[in-house]
Amino acid sequence: MADFWTHTIHGVKVLETLKDTPWLRNRRFFFMGLQGPDIFFYAYDRPEVVAWGSRIHQSRCGQFMKELFASERLPKEYAFGFLCHQVMDRYAHRFINHFEDFKAHKRKEMAIDAGMIRRFLNRRHDHLKPWKLFEDVELKELPSEFAKVVRRVFNDKSFKSETFEYAISKTFSTLKMLYEDIEKTRRRAFRYWLLSLGGKDYTHLVPPKKVKDPLNEEKKPWIDPVTKKQRNESFLEIFEQAVEEASESIKMLLNGRIPDTLFRNFETDEPC
Ligand SMILES: [Zn+2]
Question: How far is the CA of 109 from the centre of ligand 1 (A)?
């Protein structure tokens, strides 16, 4: 998986390759789609909503993506953003999956995010306002159409328009709470950890301050979790491949063809 800014920068780069194709009417929907099913992870106070995050990443992926594109009323821009998320997750996951522990995994994602922000936006994590992308969005028919797709694909009536709306509003409020003042969040997380004698550890939610070579520009070897083979690409090289694949897939869809890329597990990159 990848984190917020890696997905956003990936989408911007994909857009650059599609300049001549007039398919993007609503940029906001595309940028929301770029966060894919990760929006459900922000609803941490409702486990039944969080569970949809994992479910959509890992099961019935092809069927889900096909239905997302088949929906007449769901904004196409959102579906294209979602596709970019799927592609980026698959590539990023193979790069960072050698961290078994979830916290380390999340921190590695964030370290990559920080490296990408520095490289492409020439900024620091704490100078950006990710929640703005989810502020005052007019969702129109998106929640109800998304809910219809989920209910059909997973045959589960518990998913409502409200489930989607809740995830969007929690994405906004959680990102704002965590990143409006990163230093404050860092101090607070450390205090919780200390006062609970290590029992409540939220320190992984704050981007790490210093990570040496988060994008592996030194090209040190790492093991691909899918092939179990050694690779040594930098994250930037992997990122380029993810831009190309997403861009080619969007072009195919615009020409009425269904790309194979839809039928892959977001996390393990296996057929799904
Ligand atoms: Zn994801």
Answer: 11
pLDDT of residue 192: 73
Q: How far apart are CA 84 and CA 65, in angstroms?
A: 11
Give yes or no for a contact between 252 and 38, defined as CB atoms under 8 angstroms apart: no
CA of 37 to the centre of ligand 1 (A): 6
pTM beyond 0.85:
yes
- pLDDT, tens only, 39-84: 999 998 999 999 999 999 999 999 999 999 999 999 999 999 999 9
Q: Where are the beta strands (DSSP E) in 77-184?
A: none
152 alpha carbon – ligand 1 mean position (Å): 21
> What is the C-alpha to C-alpha distance for residues 189 and 183, in angstroms, rounded to an integer?
10
Residues with CB under 5 A from ligand 1 (ion): 1, 36, 38, 89
User: Is the separation of the CB atoms in 182 and 206 below 8 Å?
Assistant: yes
Nearest residue to 208 (alpha-carbon basis) of 114, 145, 130:
114
- Highest mean pLDDT pick, 188-202, 220-234, 243-257: 243-257
The pLDDT tens digits of the residues spanning 95-105 come to 876 554 556 67
d(CA 1, CA 38): 9
Distance 195 CA to ligand 1 centre (A): 32
Distance (Å, whole) CA 98 – CA 138: 39
Residue from 86, 78, 49 nearest 161 by CA: 49
- Phi-psi region at 259: left, alpha or beta (left = phi > 0; alpha = psi -120 to 50): beta
Q: How far apart are the first and last CA of the chain?
A: 16
